[in-house]
Amino acid sequence: MSPNPKGSEGSRSLPQPSARAGAPARRQRPRGGAWSRLKQAQEARRAKKNPTGEMTLIEHLQELRRRIVYALLALVVGTLIGFFWYQNAPFGWSTLGEILREPYCALPADKRADFTNDGTCRLLATTPFEMLMLRIKVGALAGAVVSSPVWLYQVWAFIVPGLHKKEKRYTFMFVSVAGVLFVAGAALAYFVLSEGLEFLMSIGAEYQTAALTGKEYFGLMLTMLILFGIAFEVPLIIIALNLVGVLEYEHVKGKRRILFIIVMIISAFITPADPYSLIALAGALWILIESALQFCRINDKRRNRERPDWMDLDDEQASPLGSGPGAVGLAEPVPAPTPVNPPSSHPNAPAPARPASAQAQPQPQQNRRPARPQQPESGFFDDVL
């Protein structure tokens, strides 16, 4: 049995000699196909990058240019899709023109002009290029909506490297909620437009018939969709200002009347001159703003933040000192010394303990004889000397 069978682990394939002597060896291609080579190239590019993520100003500008190019390409592709979808219905869907024309066609037949003999709903075009320009305009707006995931991702990919983990979470939540609110506002505008048009076109219907052109109708509809969507972002802005500490509930809790008047004025400017759209937008916007105010109240209560007194003082007025250590109090009197109990006269009573200082002090010696001077002992040579 061979020690290294074919295909076993640890076996190596020896290079085969070339067919012709002196011919250069062929360059071996990486195995795995195109996908594997692409993955290896990406890993090689990542390895060359700075591990700390630091970039110079030129690198930032190059990254911004690359993200803008990708976003513009996505918008162009989305515009082409919207231009094709305006008159063609893929996958059995309704065409974009029919979807946008639905609020107008929902009006009673006696309140809109009929330009066909079969009663088909049509809008009026007064110039040769009006239909083409209208199709391009609607296709561009529809393309911006269709390609929004791509260009929003490009914006996110450019901003997110400079954010911390907590900031990334807050930014993602903010963008997600903003998208949902914008879609909700646009949907509300779409459904109330038919009621508003019916009210407006019924005024003076006994003497005239309204014939809307495609430019006027689509312009009104797209304006309402965008403005309703932007108006629904106001509560989110209030919450964001409260989270960063700029706006507190104490500042706005007593100003609801002013806020209500501002909401009514904004709704009157955004909507056409009909009460249905005005009431629908003002009511929905007020509900959202009140919800945002309640969020601010709960958030401030959770943080237990109080406005300091020095913020209400004038610039030239000195702020009072904070609650620091108080003044030093008066000296307390030293208690009088208590007398020492005299020794007991009982014969069996133990003698009082002497203090350590008295024990350590040597006692004076009395009737002690003076020491005699020592005489030197006689030596062996004393008689000689």
Describe the secondary-structure layout.
Elements: H1 33-48, H2 57-85, H3 96-105, H4 130-146, H5 148-159, H6 165-201, H7 214-231, H8 234-243, H9 249-252, H10 256-270, H11 275-303, H12 356-360
Helix pairs in contact: 2-4, 2-5, 6-7, 6-11, 8-11, 10-11
Quick take:
The chain has 385 residues and is an all-alpha fold. The protein has helices at 33-48, 57-85, 96-105, 130-146, 148-159, 165-201, 214-231, 234-243, 249-252, 256-270, 275-303, 356-360.
What does this protein look like?
This protein is mainly α. 52% of the residues lie in helices and 0% in strands. The protein is built from twelve helices and no strands. Helix 6 (165-201) packs across helix 7 (214-231). The chain starts with 32 loop residues before the first helix and ends in a 25-residue tail after the last helix. 13% of the residues are buried.
